Prior knowledge:
HSPB1-associated protein 1; HSPB1-associated_protein_1; binds 2-oxoglutaric acid; about 20% strand; 12 helices; 2 domains; globular; JmjC_dom; Jelly Rolls; about 30% helix; alpha+beta
Amino acid sequence: xxxxxxxxxxxxxxxxxxxxxxxxxxxxxxxxxxxxxxxxxxxxxxxxxxxxxxxxxxxxxxxxxxxxxxxxxxxxxxxxxxxxxxxxxxxxxxxxxxxxxxxxxxxxxxxxxxxxxxxxxxxxxxxxxxxxxxxxxxxxxxxxxxxxxxxxxxxxxxxxxxxxxxxxxxxxxxxxxxxxxxxxxxxxxxxxxxxxxxxxxxxxxxxxxxxxxxxxxxxxxxxxxxxxxxxxxxxxxxxxxxxxxxxxxxxxxxxxxxxxxxxxxxxxxxxxxxxxxxxxxxxxxxxxxxxxxxxxxxxxxxxxxxxxxxxxxxxxxxxxxxxxxxxxxxxxxxxxxxxxxxxxxxxxxxxxxxxxxxxxxxxxxxxxxxxxxxxxxxxxxxxxxxxxxxxxxxxxxxxxxxxxxxxxxxxxxxxxxxxxxxxxxxxxxxxxxxxxxxxxxxxxxxxxxxxxxxxxxxxxxxxxxxxxxxxxxxxxxxxxxxxxxxxxxxx
Length: 491
Ligand SMILES: O=C(O)CCC(=O)C(=O)O
C-alpha cells in the first residue's frame, strides 16, 4: 500500500501468506512476535489471519442471543443525524432489552411494541457498547475461553479481560483517547470504520473531561462533521482511517484518539486493553482528575451529577473516596518504582557493573514526564525502527491525505461519510465499571483497596487535599490553566 493513501486491508489472504514468523496452526505471527510488535509499534495496524481458529469468530448477534438467553442488556440510543456536536453518552437515551428484541427491531425496521417502540429505526441507532464479559456472562464463564489473546503473546488473557460491543448501523463512539494501556480489537461481525489521530494531535482535538468518565478523555470535536469555526486547529489533525472487517484485529497504540462507527446493519466486536508500564503514572493523573472534577461539579450542582457524569460511571464520587483512590494510585506508583529499582539493582549486581547512584533513583514528580516517559518512548521508537513488521498479515493504518471516494463501504477506506471539504462544510454524512469489576484497567489499585476506607494505606494518607491543592494552584499550573481558559475566546 502506498504511503499517504488510506488503509486498504486485504480480507482473503491465505493463512500464513508472507509471514516469516509463522506460528502454530499456520498463523502469520508467533505469540512472541505478535507481542513484540504490539509493545513496540507506534502506529495503528491491522493483524490478519490471526484469529481464524478462535471459537469467538462465530459470535454473531444471533449466536449471542442464544448464549445470553433472555438477559436484559442496556442499549445506548443515538440519533442517525450528524450535526457538529458530538453525541456524548450523557446526551443519549437508554433502553433495557434482550438481544432478541434488538434484532427484531433492527430487522423489521420498526417495533410497534416492546422496549424499542419509541424509537423509529430510520432515526435512531442502538448500541450495546462497552459490556464487560464478566458482567454479561456471569453464569457462563466457559465462554471466556473462546477469546484467546494468548495468540498475541498474552498468556491466560481471554474473555475475562475483554469487552463486547453490539451495534446497529450508525452506532458510534465519540472521539476519545483511553488513558490506560493499548488496545486489541477483534471484529467479529459486520464492519466498523475507525478514525484515528496520533497522541501528538491532542491540542488539535480540543480535549475535555466533561462528560467525566474515568480513563476516557473526550474530544469536543465531532470529527466526522467538525465545526471548524469553533475548532480551527482541528484542520491540523492527522486523520488515519481504516475499515475493520470480520476476522481482523486492530491494534490501537497508547493514547491514539479514535472515533468508531458501525457501517453494517449489525456489528459485533470484542476488545481488550493491554496494561502498560506507563499506566502507573496515568492512574495518578486520572485520580487527580477525578478528585477535581467531582469536587467542583458537585459543588456547582449537588443534585444532578448525571449532567456531567458519564452513565458508565457508577462508582462512588464522594471526595473522601476519591482521595482514597488518589492515595492508592500514588502508593502503587511508588511501590512499582521501588520494585523496578530493586530489579534494576539486582541486574546490575549480577552483571558486576557499577552505575551512578542517581541513575538508579526513582523518577520524582517532575522527572516523570521529562525523563521517564520519553525514555520509554525512545526505547519503543528504537525497537520500531529496527524491525519493519508490515506485510500482508500486518497492514499499517496510514494517514488519510486524499479526498475520500464517494462510495460507502468496500474494502478500501474512506467511504465519504462525514468528511469535511476544505471550506469546512460537511459532505455526505457520516466502559461494567472500571474500578470495581475490571482489575485490568485499574489493576494495582483495586476497588477494595480504594473503597475500604479504614485500611492502613488510607489512614496514613500520602496525599492530603491540601497537598493536591498546593500542586494544582501552583502559579505555573494556574498560568497554564489561565492560558487554556482564554484560548479560543474572543478577546
Ligand atoms: O467500537 C467502538 O465503538 C469503540 C471502541 C473503543 O473505543 C475502544 O475499543 O477503545
